[in-house]
Amino acid sequence: MVGAVVPWNFPLLMATWKAAPALAAGNSLIIKPARLTSLSAIRMAELAAEAGLPDGVLNVVPGAGSKAGQALGRHMDVDMVTFTGSTETGRQFLHYSVESNLKEVALEMGGKSPQVVLGSAPDLDAVAEQVLFAGLMNMGENCSCGSRLIVERSVHDDLVERLVARLPEWTVGDPQDPETKLGPMIERPHLDKVLGYIETGRAEGARVVAGGGRTLEETGGYFVAPTILDGVANTMTVAREEIFGPVISTIPVDSEEEAIALANQTSYGLAASVYTTDLDTAIRVARSLRAGTVGVNAYSEGDITTPFGGYKESGFGGRDKGLEALEQYTEKKTIWFSLNP
Question: Residue 119: which of 267, 303, 285 has the closest Cα?
Fold first, then answer.
């Protein structure tokens, strides 16, 4: 039996990333969706039942993480838990395993992904488009969000200027409007958390060059204006902690070596990207960045055929997507036969 605990930011996608390989490997599965976004997982289970999946093979148990999630983590009949969510919560599942049946645990957790833009970067307009997509996609509520922009000083000013110029393209508004690119934060406490990080950035010396606060407040929605912080030091809170909102922190550097060092100077290691027109540089930097997925001249998490997961406090124990996803839902067994008993 496999338990899958999935987050609220991509509720159906994360559920399918785990359900498909777990079921294909022959397991029964219990999905615990986030309390804020449980309906999509329930609907998926309804459709699976209509399609003929036997009762009890795919199950959905909504509830608070402290109750339903903990129950899965501690249950003696659950052989393995796969978790996507915060690093703080992921640590709890390791405790649950130790305190129960030593079940296997696969963790995909937080990130503070660097986008490294070198002086040899290609067309800066194209780079700006990718940088904004990496940092703002899904309102920045994304564990692989490219929230740290590490850029060589030779192209720093030009790139920041292009980022600010393109920011109006990221329309904030009703998420049901096809023209909207940025909807609201998931809930009021999360809105306050993101705004708090922006204020902390200001207090620690970062310069707000765009956004910097709440917007469309008259609607009652939890909207945050897409925000670019410049002059950020890698030691600042906004460069170290996962904000999970539409905030990009720009960190200027003087060399490729410094860029790599700062990119790796984090407790996370989920994703990264590097921008350069030099192939040798691209390979060298991509190999040096301690991240599970590295995009070259584009922000990318790969596709369904490529494994997704991280290093360090971004997780371990397995990978979502790709053939590698099947491995975490299987156990190896050796059977010896005596042909002449």
Answer: 285
Catalytic residue among 46, 104, 129, 143: 143
Catalytic residue among 46, 104, 108, 324: 108
* pLDDT tens, residue by residue, 65-106: 999 999 999 999 999 999 999 999 999 999 999 999 999 999
DSSP 204: T
CATH superfamily of 114-296: Aldehyde Dehydrogenase; Chain A, domain 2 (3.40.309.10)
Q: Which fold has domain 2-109+314-327?
A: Aldehyde Dehydrogenase; Chain A, domain 1 (3.40.605)
Question: Domain locations in the chain?
Answer: 2-109+314-327, 114-296
Look up the pTM and report it.
0.94
Which parts of the chain fold into alpha helices (H)?
11-24, 39-50, 70-74, 87-99, 124-136, 153-166, 188-203, 237-240, 256-264, 279-288, 324-327
pLDDT digits (tens, 9 = 90+) for 294-335: 999 999 888 999 999 999 999 999 999 999 999 999 999 999
108 tagged catalytic: yes
DSSP tag of 299 = -
Distance of CA 187 to the CA centre of its chain: 18
Instruction: Please state, in angstroms and rounded to a whole number, the distance separating the CA atoms of residues 204 and 183.
Output: 28
Is 145 one of the annotated active-site residues of the chain?
no
